[in-house]
Amino acid sequence: MVSRYDRQTLLRRRLIVGVTFGLIVLVTIGAWIFLVPAPAPPQGRPAGPAPAPSGPDAQTDTTNNADVPSAEELPRLAKISDPEAFARAAAEALFAWDTTAPAPLSAYSGRLVAAADPTGESAPGLVADVATYLPTEEAWAMLRSYATRQWLEVTSAEVPTQWAQALAEAGPEGLAPGTTAYTIRGTRHRAGVWEGTAVTTEDPVAFTVFIVCGPTYPECHLLRLSRLDDPLE
């Protein structure tokens, strides 16, 4: 027969186990929220996404400027002719998003696809590449409830050693003049609010951006992206 003391001890042990398990679940869910959609982070501009300015100083006369984006649109990638500068800008734009901003998820992928090769040959592949870096619609809705935003701090952008081999294998007629690759390394940052507390994460990332610039085009365009953390070395 189980004594009253034994029953109380058993109940206390069950309570301790239950509380411990609950804490583990909460911590796990909190960590998962800030790691969606890929292990760890970054897609952002150098200083990361910032809240939209407000007040009199933020007002701009757009009467004669048809290129100014609406509140639900994002600025297009700047027209850049320097390959490294463009690769950095594209990388930052790839990781920069803010679920609290008016722009929808599609706007973040759209601005990258808009910078694709004008021939359109690489566009389908680029669309698929970008999708692997951005949250899904379901994840976006969840991240929005935690006011999550993300940005990338680029630490290096270098033409990978393997690119010379790729050019040699492609031959003189294989790639358009000015086609190159840059392996980007940096830190992906995420920030949000978890149970009323501001939470941030930082994760190292590496990937390769494939672009085409002059003399084929006066400014650079985005071709493809490597898988995250699987860059050309």
Share of residues in helices: 25-40%
| Total number of beta strands | 5
* Residue windows where pLDDT falls under 50 for at least 5 positions: 1-69
Biggest pleated sheet:
5 strands, antiparallel
Mean pLDDT: 78
Count structural domains.
1
**β content, as a range?**
15-25%
N- to C-terminal separation?
A: 69 Å
Based on secondary structure, the structural category is: alpha+beta
Report the order of strands and helices.
HHEHHHEHEEE
User: Helix segment count?
Assistant: 6
Rg: 23 Å
General shape: globular
Structure, described:
With 233 residues, this protein is an alpha+beta fold. The protein has one domain (8-48, 73-225). It contains six helices and five strands; from the N terminus they run ααβαααβαβββ. The chain has helices at 4-33, 83-95, 105-113, 123-133, 137-144, 162-170, and strands at 97-98, 149-158, 179-194, 197-212, 221-225. The chain has a five-stranded antiparallel sheet with strand order 1-2-3-4-5. A hairpin with an 8-residue loop joins β4 and β5 (221-225). It starts with a helix and ends in an 8-residue tail after the last strand. The relative contact order is 0.18.
